[in-house]
Amino acid sequence: MKNRYNHWPMIVTPPFKGLGQRIESATRKALFTYSMIPEDGKIAIALSGGKDSLSLLIMLCAISGRGVPPLELTAIHVQGEFSCGAGVDVTLLQKVCDQLNVPLLIRTSDLKLEQLACYSCSRDRRSLLFEATKEVGAKVLAFGHHRDDHAQTLLMNLLHKGEFAGNLPKLEMVDYGVTLIRPLIYVSEQQLKTFAQESGFARITCQCPVGQRSMRKKVDELLDEIEILFPNARSNLAQAGLIYGSDKARRKS
């Protein structure tokens, strides 16, 4: 779907002001709190083209060499007939990466409509991302999952499986030889929406025919209802999940 954002202006760069500065600060906090930056500085970024992954790419580029050693970043985009990302044209993503001097690697998912389901799609795309990450010599893969994704996951796991577990900020996928990081774990979705709008790259985010009726979508709507009574529900759930996850990790060590 083409829209006015398919030709957005030059990508915003630091120094940021206002909201951009706050998002950068929160990203730095996550990077340092959870020791996300590898010694070799090589980080692959899962780039769907939506507001979350583009904000992550912009922030990591901004932070690189500013208070931290220079990062060796590579963007990886998984294209296919269907996408839970923004459905953005690959040539546009290439222009964005060229502006930021970040290499872009393209992989293609072969999933068809009859195979579509959030779980199978996620596994397929992650396999492609893991393979590409190792191909470029990186061991760390960054996702654009934010605070609200974490709260949704926590509530889904709690209600569906009786587990108090959200998206971990850092997760070693031992069987795959890749470590996942989520540098936007302290950033709310609304902050990212506003940042994307102010920076000129906001757009319709979900092009998947399954995504709009997924369990995650229903949980997000449930959180909207909960926040009528408890306005800080998403923030509090996310904070509790991070505290519990940190305590659990310390007990294991």
Structural summary, described in words:
This protein is α/β, with parallel strands linked by helices and 253 residues long. The protein has a single domain, classed as HUPs (Rossmann fold, 3-Layer(aba) Sandwich). It is built from 8 helices and 6 strands, in the order αβαβαβαβαββααα. It has a 6-stranded mixed β-sheet, with helices on both faces. Helix 3 (90-99) links the parallel strand 2 and strand 3 (104-109).
* Total of helices: 8
CATH architecture descriptor name: 3-Layer(aba) Sandwich
Please give the alpha-carbon distance between the first and last residues.
49 Å
What is the C-alpha radius of gyration, as a whole number of Å?
A: 18 Å
Write the CATH homologous superfamily: HUPs
Which overall shape is indicated by the principal axes computed on the Cα atoms? globular
CATH topology: Rossmann fold
Give a brief description.
The chain has 253 residues and is α/β, with parallel strands linked by helices.
Keywords:
6-stranded mixed beta sheet, single chain, Rossmann fold, about 45% helix, 8 helices, globular, alpha/beta, disordered N terminus, about 250 residues
